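thread: overnight batch results

M.L. [08:02]
morning all. the overnight job finished for the chain we discussed friday. pasting input first so we're all looking at the same thing
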Amino acid sequence: MQPSVVSHVKAFLSRPLFLVLLIPAVIKLFFLSPDHLFEPHTMAEEWIRSGEFKYHYLGAWNYTFQFPVYTALAAAFYLLGLGPVAMLVFQVCCGTATAWLVYRMALIVCDGKSYSRTVALGATLLTGLNPFMAYYQVRVLHPFAWDTFLALALLLAAMTVRSERRGQVISLFALAGFVMLDRPTLIVFLLPFVWRERHFLFGLRELPLKLLLIV
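M.L. [08:03]
and the structure it wrote out:
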């Protein structure tokens, strides 16, 4: 490697944001243990075994016991020969990505103030080391970490996308549709965009585009 490339890599690795994201993630990797396997684990195994999305509960098969996205991810991991521990690593990655989203949102909320970067880094570190969130990432096979990541991804997009950028608007609503498939209640995180762009959304202009957004 050229010395200049090495120096650039070292500079990147020494950035506070990189360290604030990396250190909590590494700490959590030492505590991985699938102590609690909730219904998505059982449904993923049943999906692989029988080809049916169902869960045996209170003496009957329930086909709507869990939303499908996280369970499908678990089934994909298992089909690849990866077990619950690999899903926990995935959840730690979701938690790290969530912390980065918190950083971006903190910068937006602070709106260029002199302390914005310090506040954003602090919020990121507190998110990464939050014991409640960490527990659901490293000990429990549960969609909480994945849902949190999707919720904040939708919220950040809803805070930043503008109606004049048509491609971004379509991508935002596609993300919202995917999030609803994962957990319908998370659609509330689209509300910042609805409020900011209410004149665009509830006007009579560009009705074909709005029909596409609804679809």
